[in-house]
Design brief:
Length: 429
């Protein structure tokens, strides 16, 4: 029985029926190799995870060394050196005065823990999030997810949650245009607090770039305005950097694009450990001290192997200047993609930061009818030409380009060339 048949028979359909028809045998750097020996340029990075590239030698060496010493003892029952080292490193690399960390296994756990800490620190119980936002697939994180496509068939959800309008400039929910709008969607959050909550707001949770929502990229001033509104209301700012963190957007953390923004709690996962399962949230003092012993725990959180991989991963990102490369290669790719937008009406919008790029495809530019089927077909054409990309967005019509941050100028040109060829063969192009 081959792998595809095993998936069909034994893996839940919710996963198996959406899997790409590629059976991965190995991966290295930016290259994924299937069981037939065919190589693909990976421009999705396992959903924005392997920022330093697949199987980076330094990350693997650190994990192997740790594996020989200690696999597990529960890092919240005993002191483990590598866990303390990673906590100190996160205090160094995260923005502002964030200091103390808690480690889990995933982004959803990081967001769940962040919300719990915010409630205990403020003594409040409500949360504000954004429409189109996505924060995980647990009941708590789905409760603050404003992406209806991810919430179907699973309610009711947690009460005490209000949603603000998404900073979706291409399809502005307020019918305005940037910059003449003066970022009205951010200012509208003040009305959300006043009209949709009881005034008991513990935190505002936001992705600096809304990944699953379709790589929605707010104006840089958006987060500054939002942070001021919630801090004035006595609420905390939880910045969800699960997908945007560790260099993905051309900054170590995407909230650094917004001047003066000081997260109270910052949530991380995905790119933190180059593929080893790890999530974390880091908080400033005294917010971090609101939890007392026994309030929160994770049996596998702070796994020594994952923490060792994370330390090596951060060193690679810094020493190989991958953040800087993400900014440069992002500019290169965006320039090429905007030229393609001029030639191909199916590309309605090109947006993103660094190497977190989205192309929104539409059947007509005036009406902006989503081209969801065409987006899936385009992904297939790219795959046939040896380039792997993702598809996302609430409407299923956003092509996602999120390669490892080590991608080269020549590889960026290859992506654009293959995309141009594929678009030229699209019926609606």
């Amino acid at each position: 029985m081959d792998t595809k048949e095993q998936y069909a028979r034994y893996v839940l359909p919710v996963v198996a029926q959406g899997v790409e028809p590629v059976v991965v045998a190995s991966a290295r750097g930016r290259t994924v190799t299937d069981v037939d020996g065919r190589d693909y340029l990976d421009c999705f990075s396992g959903i924005s995870v392997v920022n330093a590239g697949h199987n980076h030698p330094r990350v693997l060496a650190a994990a192997r060394e740790q594996m020989e010493q200690l696999v597990h003892c529960c890092s919240y029952v005993y002191h483990v050196p590598v866990v303390g080292q990673l906590a100190e490193k996160l205090a160094d690399v995260t923005p502002g005065d964030l200091k103390k960390s808690f480690f889990g296994n995933s982004g959803a756990e990081a967001i769940e823990g962040s919300m719990r800490l915010a409630k205990q620190a403020t003594g409040r119980r409500e949360v504000v999030a954004l429409s189109y936002g996505f924060h995980g697939r647990t009941i708590g994180t789905l409760s603050i997810t404003g992406n209806s496509a991810r919430k179907r068939n699973n309610g009711p959800y947690m009460s005490g949650v209000a949603f603000g309008p998404a900073p979706y400039c291409y399809r502005c929910p307020l019918g305005l245009k940037y910059p003449s709008c003066e970022v009205a969607c951010a200012h509208a959050l003040k009305d959300v607090v006043a009209q949709q909550t009881s005034g008991d707001v513990a935190a505002f949770v936001i992705e600096p770039v809304l990944g699953e929502g379709g790589i929605l990229t707010p104006p840089a001033e958006y987060l500054s305005i939002a942070a001021r509104i919630f801090h004035d209301a006595g609420a905390l700012l939880i910045v969800d950097e699960v997908q945007t963190g560790f260099g993905r957007t051309g900054k170590m953390f995407a909230c650094e694009y917004s001047e003066g923004v000081q997260p109270d709690i910052l949530s991380m996962a995905k790119g933190i450990a180059s593929g080893f399962p790890l999530g974390a949230f880091t908080a400033r003092e005294p917010v971090s001290d609101a939890m007392k012993p026994g309030d929160h725990l994770s049996t596998f959180g702070g796994n020594p192997i994952s923490c060792a991989a994370a330390l090596a991963n951060i060193a690679v990102i810094q020493e190989e200047k991958l953040v800087e490369n993400a900014a440069l290669r992002g500019e290169q790719l965006m320039a090429r993609l905007r030229l393609l937008q001029e030639k191909h009406p199916i590309i309605g919008d090109v947006r993103g930061r660094g190497l977190m790029i989205g192309l929104e495809l539409v059947r007509d530019r005036k009406g902006k009818e989503p081209a969801a089927a065409e987006t899936k077909a385009l992904r297939a054409k790219l795959r046939e030409q040896g380039v792997l990309v993702g598809v996302g967005g609430l409407l299923g019509n956003v092509l996602r380009i999120q390669p490892p941050l080590s991608i080269t100028p020549a590889e960026c040109d290859r992506v654009a060339d293959v995309l141009e060829l594929a678009l030229s063969k699209m019926p609606t192009a």
